[in-house]
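Lab notebook page, bench 4
Experiment: in silico fold of construct C2
Operator: M.H.
Input chain length: 457 residues
Purpose: comparison with the prior construct
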Amino acid sequence: MKITVTGTGYVGLSLAVLLAQHNDVTALDIDARKVELINDGVSPISDAEITDFLNNKPLRLSATLDKEQAYRDAEFVIIATPTDYDPETNYFNTDSVEAVIEDVLHFNPTATMVIKSTVPVGYTESIKNTYTHHHFSPKFSSFSKQTARKKLHAQMTENGASEDKAESSPGSQVWNLATQLQQKLTNSGVDSDYNERFQHKQPNIIFSPEFLREGKALFDNLYPSRIVIGERSERAEIFAKLLTQGAIKADIPVLYSDSTEAEAIKLFSNTYLAMRVAYFNELDSYAETHGLNTRQIIEGVGLDPRIGAHYNNPSFGYGGYCLPKDTRQLLANYQNVPNSLIKAIVDANTTRKDFIADSIIKRNPKVVGIYRLVMKSGSDNFRASAIQGVMKRIKAKGIEVVVYEPVLEEDTFFRSAVINDLETFKQKADVVLANRLTDDIMDIREKVYTRDLFGQD
């Protein structure tokens, strides 16, 4: 089968490698460096299994920058582009997803698209309806959607209303407004041939959430906890079989649900994980404040099989690409739903970073060293890592901060000096802040501040 995967981050590349064991897979990206590395058999991201498979497995995988080449013969197109949370609109920025959808509809409208990017609850149904009745023109899609979001936000702010109050489907008013803007362009005759081809034809779009860890993405695809497909159909079953075919684990649980329920599964799953992180972090804050042994308490709590001794290592807060934005998106979807817990999970992360920063500030250091910006071992990504929030709070008090982070190529990070030599870094800092302990800093353990009690993520 011919499959295209758009986006070669940890989600897209891990899926491309998984599927390329038994299928002809094309990885599409806009980054020429990534494309060149993949074609040379080199992983552009830090993932041991991906590196191993690219080096040692007979994969039918190629990468390209050419959209037409990637899409024209594909039977499945997997969309794994980034959807960052936009604080202005309280929704994920899904522009990259729509751009892919429009390109696929233009080059190969019969292909089945599978959205792996995380999206708001109700998005897939809304976007399918939007493209069925009022198809966006590629020439104006970026303008119309960005304008729609900003205009809608401005209108709602001015009226003192919430975007969600307009309609029951989350995000639907955003798309209705975008549709109205685009319809004006369509009525003016812009790209009429394109719209005529696809008007009233519902695109082949499925949502299937991913449950992957950065640095362990291919491993989690080879040994998945479950597979969720947001459609109950023959094509959904075919896609599920493609995933199980590439996996090593046997008897993988597969759930076929509606698209909106699948989107909710993703956000509620990650919010639960964030809640668990926040719970053990607040347990640790209590214990540290009262001079208690956090580890003993956690070990005792974890002996209850309903709780378990996993995912319980205190940290500076939950971070990374998924948990911060997914929790905030879920909270936004709760706009008209009574809740206390979901908001508390979001707020708890801020509270924890405040607590960690205050604990450092009380030591009156002249120079604080940040040992690694990455959020966990085995990762080269420090997007939204909690230690950055702690760092900014310390800097706000006028304390000098220096950073040791091997993956950084810049000389400064948020106007703090980056020291590439570890020994120089150790000597410079009065206190070293480390989210996770490693052997590299055990020789200065007396001046390391960490809440890593179990030596695991």
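Observations: The first helix runs from residue 10 to 19. The chain has two domains: 2-138+179-257, 266-449.
Next step: discuss at group meeting.
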